[in-house]
Design goal:
The structure holds 2 protein chains of 2 kinds. By secondary structure, chain A is an alpha/beta fold. Chain A is built from 20 helices and 23 strands. In chain B, the strands form 3 sheets. In chain B, strands 2-1-3-4-8-7-13-9 form an 8-stranded mixed beta sheet, with helices on both faces. In chain B, strands 10-12-11 form a 3-stranded antiparallel beta sheet. Classes of the chains: A alpha/beta, B alpha/beta. At the A-B interface, strand 9, helix 7, helix 9, helix 11 and strand 17 of A face strand 2, helix 3, helix 5, helix 11 and helix 12 of B.
């Protein structure tokens, strides 16, 4: 294979006539702060607009400018939108990482590089194209200070030409990206066109990869999970948001502020919400609890370190029975760790967050559509069960771009749970806050400000009887704990049920949740086609586990629990819930490198464990 | 046996008797300053005619924070976690801006574990009455120093405090609270007037009430004992309060008395004992507090008041009705809104 493929130097060498259509990963290696995000979004959208399923994943540093960043666009005609390990087309813009990036490619991949980098000497089993970016940019962008930003749009044009992405779609994507800035749109369009023209006149296409128009994206949307969650909360009737900035959750609230301004300001110009940036996560959760207690639909969004800080208050909310919604956009580790890498590492600590006997409802979205729908579920369940509900998203879902069907409008009215009004109290005469009248473990509450002499009750931690009076009596404590447990058991049949895909008589089951879903569904197809391994699949959507989860384990000889943490956290949680004789059926496939789970990793590990 | 006719019980302007402002029986030590403060609070609420159902009582952890159980049973109450009542109070007011929020804290709950939330509460000027029942020690854990203990003050065990105290009033003024004063649980008249003015105020009220701990900090050598405070109490001004629903019947001399018109139309009359003291002068207030520390005075009175500053709730541009009870039609946008949002993402 020849080392370069750039006219006029090289037309020699032979590459097979293999034509790979609508099935590739394009990776753009750049530095953060260089404006490449716009270019990458344009490229992603242009492919999407050609009807080809896509996903975009940003691998970025915890830094504002100057460190390496990789953006990977996966186009796949089958609709697989999880991460793919292998890169097929590298756009090497970052001198610092270019060598490593090139060396890690599989044979046959294409590389597009900035001329001075001279990467073509590194390997002889790749297809290389170079572009003199600075010359092209200088011609289209008279303003020197804008050239650094516009340079990135040049590669969009080059890639479009090489992969046969239609320039009309590139233009449409640029117009959308710079919708409110016509001047910027024109400048970027000129840059993309210059790249396209350069490629057309100077590069000879020799790589195997092509984009062809198809029809798998009609009507679909592209959005990141945090924006979807934000929109979900706006439609869930959330009224109070208190937060403390932390990656990767900040964009959830920031987007929500925009959506709230757009959709939740009345004709009188007044807001039907309050959003407060708190001094820390301790205050954020305290405000959520104060607001939930006083009747607001309140929420916060955070990540693992914030969850840790919220621990004490989470226990108070559990015992005092105060509703609230907490979005945990999971990421890797504390302090200067890997705050910009994804993880499912907060499952076990969140399930039992706080001291004493506490357990919490968790909802686990896999998709942007579920970020929207589970926002509705979360607020309803929080109020129905008068407790905190944690929505366990992650960085991969929250911050990356996902293709989706448009979201369905909420199908049920807002459920506010058992709240006694003044009228109710007029009829009843009084109430006992923590008395289990309905046998479901859930008492009736009143909201502060209810204009009735019998409305008030005293809210405190675990030391109270069912009339909410202070009590240190052993039987009061025990009865209360048993009732709280009854409430949690009731929640089993109210949380979202798992999604189950079953074939005929497979002995092997796979359990996964959250973003691990995308790697798993692709892996199941690989296992079938490459190894002849048939699997059934259960995608968990909530804790406490519903009946179906128990049944699924019971129906399979071996159940692989796939998750993105080291210690098999969900598997551990399952062990606590299952009949002891079933726990030996569980096997762990754990993925923990901070990158989104890819199908190949699951396939390799599962097939090995199956002795294949 | 003759029966004596029962007189109609006295009621306030909303027709409630003082009994209807009572709480549970106190479990604090006999003679605890906190009990006197509870009494002043419920009397002020009664005399101001505040509907108890409109009040929320919030507290953290400690002896002080137990006290909301001992007054106003007809008000919702939340005994939250240590040092973090301000955030719970903030949330409650976001949910329902019509509530009258009363936060009861202690010196440990505020100045040590709670100092972070305290300072941020003060800078927001949230409409809330924040009372520190300040005895300089942790009572519920049996007598350790708190961060408001004075330099040189002695514990029962003989341990001397060698760190300077945090002046919560100085902090509150510096950070943006708009009604800041110090009183003494034993000064019924001053505390009552300040409590009523606090109810009339629109913004953050921060009252540091020195409230001796009879069990752990009322001995010789303590600077928070009844005796020490009585001996060193330096009163800044004589305070009278005329609620908006009563006429002013005492003439005052503008040269000797400062009249502050409160947000609700009530009048706060401060008869100057220090000629040049102006309670609307923030810088002067902080200077005077620093002087008091240097002189070893327990300075009490209203240090600072600002009736004009916007409250945190006003800055949020919220709808007038409580967010807590807005109907679905106001908090869930229609189908066309979702469709518009989807179209933007296509």
């Amino acid at each position: 294979m020849s080392t370069t493929n750039v006219a006029p130097q090289g037309t020699g060498g032979q590459l097979g006539r293999k034509r790979i259509v609508n099935d590739m990963s394009i990776q753009v290696a750049t530095v953060n702060g260089s404006g490449s995000q716009s270019s990458n979004t344009v490229l992603l959208r242009a492919i999407f607009q050609m009807g080809v399923p896509v996903s975009g994943k940003n691998l970025f540093p915890s830094n504002i400018a100057g460190l390496p960043t990789w953006y990977t666009i996966r186009a796949n005609k089958e609709g697989y939108i999880g991460r793919k390990k292998e890169i097929d087309f590298l756009v090497a813009m970052n001198p610092e990482t270019a060598q490593d990036d090139v060396m890690s490619l599989a044979p046959g991949a294409s590389v597009l590089y900035d001329e001075p980098l001279a990467l073509d000497k590194l390997r002889n089993d790749l297809v290389f194209y170079y572009v003199p970016y600075d010359k092209i940019v200088a011609a289209v962008c008279p303003e020197a200070k804008l050239r650094k930003l516009v340079k990135n749009m040049v590669y969009v044009g080059v890639v479009a030409q090489l992969l046969e992405i239609e320039m009309g779609e590139v233009e449409k994507a640029i117009r959308k990206q710079f919708a409110k800035k016509a001047k910027a749109a024109n400048l970027n369009l000129a840059a993309a066109q210059a790249g396209f023209d350069y490629a057309k006149g100077n590069l000879v296409k020799r790589g195997a990869f092509y984009i062809e128009r198809m029809n798998k994206t009609a009507g679909k949307i592209i959005v990141d999970g945090n924006s979807a969650a934000a929109l979900g909360c706006v439609f869930a009737g959330c009224t109070v948001v208190t937060w403390y900035p932390i990656t990767p959750s900040s964009s959830l609230v920031e987007t929500m502020i925009e959506y709230m301004k757009e959709y939740r300001i009345g004709p009188d110009g007044k807001a039907t919400f309050a959003i407060v940036q708190a001094e820390d996560e301790l205050a954020a959760i305290g405000m959520v609890i104060g607001a939930g207690w006083a009747g607001a639909r309140s929420m916060t969004a955070t990540a693992g370190p914030g969850i840790s800080l919220m621990s004490e208050f989470a226990g108070l909310a559990y015992y005092a029975e105060v509703p609230g919604v907490i979005w945990d956009i999971q990421r890797v580790g504390p302090s200067t760790g890997l705050p910009t890498r994804t993880s499912q590492g907060d499952i076990l600590s969140t399930a039992f967050l706080s001291h004493g006997d506490t357990k919490h409802i968790m909802l686990i979205p896999s998709s942007v559509a579920e970020c929207f729908s589970m926002a509705q579920d979360a607020f309803n369940l929080a109020e129905q069960f008068q407790t905190l509900v944690f929505v366990m998203s992650d960085l991969d879902l929250g911050m990356n771009n996902w293709m989706s069907d448009p979201f369905d409008y909420p199908s049920t009215p807002i459920k506010r749970g058992k709240i006694l009004s003044k009228g109710d109290l007029d009829k009843l005469g009084g109430f006992a806050r923590y008395k289990d009248l309905d046998g479901d473990g859930v008492g009736y509450r009143t909201l502060p400000g209810t204009d009735h002499p019998a409305a008030a009750y005293f809210t405190r931690g675990s030391g109270h009887n069912d009339k909410s009076s202070y009590s240190e009596r052993p039987d009061d404590y025990e009865n209360n704990m048993e009732r709280l447990n009854r409430k949690f058991e009731t929640a089993r049949s109210f949380v979202p049920r798992p999604e189950i895909q079953k074939g005929t008589n497979a002995q092997i089951g796979i359990i996964a949740y959250g973003t691990s879903h995308w790697g798993v569904i692709e892996s199941r197809d690989q296992l079938r086609s490459e190894y002849g391994i048939e699997t059934d699949y259960l995608r968990m959507r909530a804790y406490p586990f519903t009946r179906e989860v128990h049944d699924f384990v019971e129906q399979h000889d071996r159940v692989y629990v796939v998750e993105q943490n080291r210690d098999a956290q969900m598997l551990s949680l399952l062990k606590l819930d299952l009949k002891p004789e079933l726990t030996t059926r569980l096997r762990s496939i754990a993925h923990l490198d901070g990158l989104p789970l890819d199908a190949r990793s699951v396939t390799d590990e599962l097939s090995t464990m199956e002795g294949k | 046996m003759a029966t004596t006719p029962t007189a109609e019980p006295r009621t306030n302007r909303i027709g409630l008797t003082v009994i209807e402002y009572k709480g549970g029986k106190t479990t604090l030590c006999a003679g605890c300053g906190h009990n006197a403060i509870s009494e002043r609070i419920l009397e002020a609420m009664y005399e101001m005619g505040v509907p108890p159902e409109r009040v929320v009582k919030l507290s953290g952890i400690g002896c002080s924070s137990k006290s909301p159980a001992y007054f106003m049973n007809r008000s919702h109450s939340f005994n939250s976690v240590h040092g973090r009542m301000p955030s719970v109070a903030t949330g409650a007011l976001l949910a329902n801006r019509n509530l009258l929020a009363l936060g009861v804290s202690g010196d440990g709950d505020t100045a040590s574990i709670g100092i972070g939330q305290f300072v941020h509460l003060m800078r927001r000027n949230l409409p809330l009455i924040y009372i520190i029942e300040d005895n300089g020690v942790y009572g519920l854990t049996k007598g350790q120093f708190s961060a408001t203990a004075d330099l040189g003050s002695k514990l029962k065990t003989g341990v001397i405090n060698d760190l300077p105290p945090i002046d919560t009033c100085g902090l509150a003024i510096e950070l943006g609270a708009t009604f800041v004063g110090r009183s003494f649980s034993g000064d019924k008249k001053q505390l009552s007037a300040m409590m009523k003015a606090a109810i009339a105020h629109h913004g953050t009220v921060m009252l540091d009430v020195v409230s001796p701990c009879v069990t752990f900090n009322d001995h010789e050598g303590s600077t928070k004992s009844y005796k020490y405070v009585k001996d060193h109490d330096e009163i800044l001004q004589e305070i009278s309060f005329v609620p908006h629903f009563e006429d002013i019947d005492v003439e005052y001399d503008a040269g000797t008395t400062v009249d502050v018109t409160m947000h609700d139309g009530s009048h706060l009359q401060l008869r100057k004992l220090e000629e040049d003291y102006d309670p609307t002068d923030r810088i002067r207030a902080m200077t005077r507090l620093a002087e008091a520390h240097d002189k070893g005075e327990v300075l009490t009175g209203l240090f600072y008041v600002n009736t004009k500053a916007p409250t945190f709730l006003e800055l949020l541009n919220m709808i007038g009705e409580p967010l807590a009870t807005l109907p679905e039609s106001l908090v869930r946008p229609g189908r066309e809104a979702l469709e518009a949002a989807m179209e933007e993402l296509r």
